[in-house]
Structures are given as structure tokens and as C-alpha cells.
């Protein structure tokens, strides 16, 4: 059941959830290809990991950058077995009439187009290798629910589930599994931009306290489910989205 010796590419690897997956997989003996727009933090992370690691600074919404990250991994390790396609940005917290086309395009470009480019590059490499593979996408509780003030983010993360299902159908017959984690609230830099206001860290902490488990999650708690989905323990799972949210998705907002 061990992932030791496999090669995994992680996008958004310098961030809270991506770096947690990197540390978790490194502890399991997985060699890593780490990519993010923030090359400085990537390099610092790689120095701290106990496995062979390749870093590639690039933007997940830029086709050439995505393909170059895969090429860098293949040049170093000869293959890539696993992908955690995780990079994402929060949407602007605005009312629908104020949502700009520029913000819509930016959020959809990184969260959905970026996921598509990552999935496509993964499949192209898996088809060369002819040995199957596994992909985990980072969806969100925002893939399953909506609010009226975060439309671009919800649309992008709902779109990730459509991508996931289509890719799982394509991948099944060739031995490629595609699943997703849907985190709830995990304190990371994702919320830093909103400061102390709605959607910021304090607001998220208050919201996390109302979930069934009454607390936010940790990066490690998401990473352990990513590792499970990438591994043989999940050999009969594909097209699935696993909520890792302290029970938040189980709560009905409409009481019977
Ligand atoms: P984070 O901000 O700590 O990490 C995101 C990383 O993505 C950063 O390192 C950033 O530099 C990188 N990134 C941003 N734009 C990029 C681009 N265009 N190309 C490449 N890299 C880019 O946030 P996080 O919480 O670790 O978020 C990771 C994923 O988890 C995102 O997809 C996010 O939507 C999702 N998510 C997070 C939470 C949460 O509570 N933190 C909940 C649900 C879903």
C-alpha cells in the first residue's frame, strides 16, 4: 500500500494545503515535483524536505508553464505517477452586480482553467507512460454549496467537479483514477487578503466554530486524505469528492 518511491507533482505547493501534502508525501518517501507562482517559498520548502525534490516556478493558468512543470519532473525522475492539482485563489467577496469580468476571468482562470491544464498535462504524461496514475484535485465546500457574495469562487469550484467527473470517465479504462478533496475551513494565506473583515481569518474562525466538529481543520488533516486518495487504499475510488470539513457539508440550512 506504500507510496514510497513514487513521483508526485503538486501545484500551489508553496501554500498552506499544498505544502502540507508535500510534507506528508515526503514523509511517506514520495519524490516530489513542486510548482507554484511563488518560487522563493517553493525553494525554501524543498530545502526542508527529506526527499529528492524538483521545484518549478510557474502559473497554473498558463499552458506553457504547466507543460514545463511536467517536463521538469520527467527530466529529473523519468516519470510522474501522481498529481495533486491544488493551486487556487479566493474569489472577491462582492455582490453579484459588482462582480467584474476581470475578477471572474482571474478566478476562473486559475481555479478552473488551471485545473483543466493540470489534468490534461497529467493525462498526456500518463498516456506516454502507459502505467495508469492517480490525480487528486482540491475542490472545496464551495463546490457543493453557494453563497450570494462569492460567485466566481463558487462557479470555479463547482466547475472543478465537472472536470473531475469527465476526467474520471476518461481515465477509468486506462487505469487513471481522478478524485477530489473538498476542504471546509483551514486557516491559510487564502483568507489573509480579506483582513479582519468578512471572509478574513477571524470571520472564518467564527464560522468554523459552528461546524459539527466546532473547529477549523489543519493542513495535515487534508493532506492525509489526499495521500489516501492517491494510494492503493483508494484503488476502487474514482470520480469521487471527499468532504474534509468537520461535518460542515452535512448540515442542512433548511430544517425539516
Ligand atoms: P494558500 O493561499 O495558502 O495556497 C495557495 C497557493 O497557490 C499559494 O502558494 C499561491 O502562491 C499558489 N497560487 C496562486 N495562484 C497561482 C497560480 N496562478 N499558479 C500557481 N500557483 C498559484 O491557500 P490554500 O488554503 O493552501 O489553498 C489551496 C487550495 O485549497 C485552493 O485551491 C483553495 O481554493 C482550496 N481550499 C482551501 C480552503 C481553506 O480553508 N484553506 C478550503 C477549501 C478549498
UniProtKB/TrEMBL annotation:
Domain of life: Bacteria
SUPFAM superfamilies: NAD(P)-binding Rossmann-fold domains
Name of protein: SDR family oxidoreductase
UniProt keyword list: Oxidoreductase
Record family assignment: Belongs to the short-chain dehydrogenases/reductases (SDR) family.
Molecular function GO terms recorded: oxidoreductase activity
Positions with biased composition (Low complexity): 207-216
Region (Disordered): 196-217
Amino acid at each position: 500500500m506504500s507510496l514510497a518511491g513514487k513521483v508526485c507533482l503538486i501545484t500551489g505547493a508553496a501554500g498552506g494545503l499544498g505544502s502540507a501534502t508535500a510534507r506528508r508525501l515526503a514523509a511517506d518517501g514520495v519524490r516530489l515535483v513542486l510548482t507554484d507562482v511563488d518560487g522563493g517559498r517553493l525553494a525554501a520548502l524543498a530545502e526542508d524536505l527529506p526527499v529528492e525534490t524538483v521545484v518549478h516556478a510557474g502559473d497554473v493558468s498558463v499552458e506553457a508553464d504547466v507543460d514545463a512543470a511536467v517536463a521538469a519532473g520527467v527530466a529529473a525522475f523519468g516519470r510522474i505517477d501522481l498529481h495533486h492539482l491544488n493551486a487556487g485563489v479566493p474569489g472577491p467577496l462582492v455582490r453579484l452586480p459588482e462582480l467584474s469580468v476581470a475578477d471572474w476571468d482571474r478566478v476562473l482562470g486559475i481555479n478552473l482553467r488551471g485545473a483543466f491544464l493540470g489534468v490534461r498535462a497529467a493525462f498526456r504524461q500518463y498516456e506516454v507512460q502507459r502505467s495508469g496514475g492517480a490525480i487528486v484535485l482540491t475542490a472545496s465546500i464551495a463546490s457543493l454549496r453557494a453563497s450570494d457574495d462569492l460567485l466566481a469562487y463558487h462557479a470555479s469550484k463547482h466547475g472543478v467537479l465537472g472536470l473531475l467527473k469527465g476526467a474520471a470517465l476518461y481515465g477509468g479504462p486506462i487505469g487513471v483514477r481522478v478524485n477530489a478533496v473538498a476542504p471546509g475551513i483551514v486557516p491559510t494565506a487564502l483568507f489573509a487578503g480579506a483582513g479582519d473583515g468578512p471572509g478574513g481569518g477571524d470571520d472564518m474562525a467564527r464560522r468554523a466554530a459552528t461546524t459539527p466538529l466546532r473547529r477549523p481543520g489543519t493542513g495535515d488533516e487534508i493532506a492525509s486524505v489526499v495521500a489516501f486518495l492517491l494510494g492503493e487504499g483508494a484503488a476502487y475510488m474514482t470520480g469521487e469528492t471527499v468532504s474534509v470539513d468537520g461535518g460542515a457539508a452535512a448540515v442542512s440550512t433548511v430544517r425539516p
